[in-house]
Amino acid sequence: MNELKRITFDAQVMGGKPCIRGMRVTVGTIVGLLAAGRSRDEVLEAYPHLEEADLQKALAYAAWRSEEVDIPLAHLA
Fold this sequence. Notes:
- The protein is mostly helical.
- The chain has one domain (2-66): Winged helix-like DNA-binding domain superfamily/Winged helix DNA-binding domain (Arc Repressor Mutant, subunit A).
- The protein contains 3 helices and 2 strands.
- Strands 1-2 form a two-stranded antiparallel ribbon.
- It is globular.
C-alpha cells in the first residue's frame, strides 16, 4: 500500500497499531470518530495536528484492511 505513507507502524507507539504519521493517533480512533457521526471538521478541530489527507488515508487503510483475507495456519501434526 504505497499510497498510504501517512499510516505508520511502530512497536513503541500505541503498541504497534496503525497510526497517523507516527503520532499517537490511531487509524481506529479516526475511523471510529467518523463512524460515530463526527464530521471531518470536528475531528480536525479535536486533533489540530492532523490534516485532511490524514483522515482520507485512515479511511482508505481501513477499507483496504476490511478486504484482507486472513488464512488460518494449518495445524502441524
